[in-house]
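Before relying on records like the one below, remember that each one covers exactly one chain. Contacts with other chains, cofactors or solvent are not represented anywhere in the record.
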Amino acid sequence: MTEPLPTAAHADRLTDSLRRSGALGSGRVSDVAVESARNTLLSRIVRLRLTYDGSADAAPESVILKTGRPDRAGSGWNGGPQEVAFYAEVASAMQARLVPRCFEAHCDAEQNAWHLLLEDLTDSHVIATAWPLPPTVEQCEAIVRARARFHAAWWDDARLGTTVGRWSDDAAMERYLQRLADALKRFTDRVGDRLPPERRELYDRFLAAAPRLFARYRSHRDVTIVQGDAHIWNCFLPKAGGDDDLRFFDWDCWRIDTGSDDLAYMMATHWYPDRRRILERPLLDLYHATLAAHGIAYDRQSLDDDYRLSVLYQITTPVWQSGNDLPPVIWWNNLERIFLAVDDLGCRDLLA
């Protein structure tokens, strides 16, 4: 049985959306066909093939409709509206095309419904590898250069915290720490004796030191827009090669923070020690050099300091992932890798 088209995919609605975005002139969408549909862990992705009547030479032949999964409603995950806000606040204000073009970003808070109508990059781009295979050195370099260009575009921008994103004040940080403490209790209960005492102690020390560690964030200095969920499988690389048209997608965890957070999530959380030890330093050098080439004055030692702190923060990632019912194959391996990185980089010293 063919699933019914959601309202956002009706021909008249698509016509209006594409016209408002400047992608369609006087023509109109006359027919819509579902070419493919699949669920991700947290959302539903539908590829729509469009037929037009009238003038539509520059209009897209296909688009991607991204919506929430009905079976995830009420799960506590609220990433859909956050991603809608990204395309409304951030992507719409960027000149460089480092994310998919968005034709419509809609959120109805009362109905707990949202959707994105995005550029279809299926034929022109590819994801670097099949998860969990790490990318090649060349792919890593392309991703890091593009990541640095994105960060540079928003580095210490006056709009941060005003018209783009929100700063977390002390009250918000206190609420965050309370949620984290509650999540940690559930996490340690779930994991049981598979979480050794020294790791439990590290979490306790992190909670105690967090108000002091947050001073880096409260400086509101050398910050940018970070993706949050910045693993390499949330990146489209152009099939033609190079990194001039590389696009980052899945922005449901974006926020204002240090750019090193994205690098730590990409490398320390997702790579095993041998691969990380080979690539970590050269990629940090490349990131810093690319920022400098785009006019960003950021001390190289400051990047190392921020990166170590970001790696330490990543010990909370498996806790949140477990709490959001992601499969253990994701959060358990992330837990093991991030603790190895914390030890390699001496991040425990930051808690002294």
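The chain has two domains: 7-119, 129-351.
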